[in-house]
Every structure is written in structure tokens, then in C-alpha cells.
Amino acid sequence: MKHALFLQSEIADPFAIYTQQQTSNPVYWDAHNGIWAVYSYAACKTILDSSSAWIPPLPVVTNAPAANLIRSQLARLSNTSQHASARETALQLYRQYTRVNIPALMQTLLGNETETDWVQAVCKKLPVLYLLKGLGVTNDDSAFILDNMPLLTQLMLSRDTLTQPSVINHIYEPAAKYVPPGVGVISNLIGLLIQAYDAGRATSPLAAGHMRA
């Protein structure tokens, strides 16, 4: 295996790779990306709970105060002690959600096309759009956030790779209109959007073909 990072939709059988790595390389050094890959939950938990574990400081992005603020609050980049409060914040968002008409969202995404790239048209958008519509986000704000999801995912990287930090600042403003006040709530929403987008990108190749009417 050349490197440990890949989308599941790019690999014919990603689970076979995970199984093989757990057996032959449970802790694998990926020289291409400069990271260690750990292939079992137990090993990951042992490492993260260790008193010797070192979480590097988050990079500071120049001229992007909102990006720095959001990144500092994201649960996936936080220490264990912050996870409980982050989960409670997420529950605040779930309590605010209203039921969404999924067939209507699908119709919006698919339109009347007779041939559709399922991953591009639906998988990358439906989970994010579902979250946004559940919070009552307008069509214009939803479209803006959807278009800029690839930039939002850069917040999860441990190094400063933000290509357009000003866009992150602009996303913070519309997001703040639909959730209770507080940096933690807004950051939690953005974290959920990133997870939803990542889940769609990793869609199985079985769903990645062209859909014909």
C-alpha cells in the first residue's frame, strides 16, 4: 500500500485493505503523507488516552479570525476533556431540527435529468442539504455553503492549507443566523456539515455509477 489516505469510493474493496492492514501493519507509517495510520479502535483509544500523547497546536491562519475560532472549537480536533461539552452542544442543534422532506430534496438535486452523476449530484450534497434545511437555512445561504464545502473541510487538517480564508469568514456569518448564539454552537454545526460532506464523498462505488431514468 503506497499511502493510507484514500476515499472509499476510489477503492474496489476498501474493507479488504483495512483487514489486511490490521493483520500485517496495525500501525503503519505513511511516508507519502507523513502520518501514522492505526487500524484498530483499541489501539487508537490506547494512544489517545495515553498521558504521553501530544496533540500539536492548531495553525493560525492569517486574516481569518472566523476560521481560527471555528477550528479551535471543533470536537474532532479537541482533547478528550472538551468532548463532553461538544456533545451537549450538538444536542442543542438536534433539538432545534425540524423534519425535512427528503424526496423533495432529491427532486431539487436531480431535477429532470435522465442521466446523473450520482456522487456529484446527490452524495456530496444531500447529507449537507438535509442538515441545512432542518435548521431552516434559506436556499441562497444553503447554495453558498454547499458550494464552499471543499474549503470548509480544510479546517480539519493539522497544517495551514486554507486557500481562501475569507470564504470561511463569510460562511460563519450565515451559519450564525440559524443557531442559538455562541461560538461553540456555530462551530459544532460546521463540524457536523464537514462530517456529512466527508460521508458523502466516501460513498461506495456501487452508488457511484451513472443513474439512468
From TrEMBL:
InterPro entries: Cyt_P450_sf. The lineage of its organism: Bacteria, Pseudomonadati, Bacteroidota, Chitinophagia, Chitinophagales. It comes from the Bacteria. This is Cytochrome P450. GO terms for molecular function: heme binding; iron ion binding; monooxygenase activity; oxidoreductase activity, acting on paired donors, with incorporation or reduction of molecular oxygen. Transmembrane segments: none annotated.
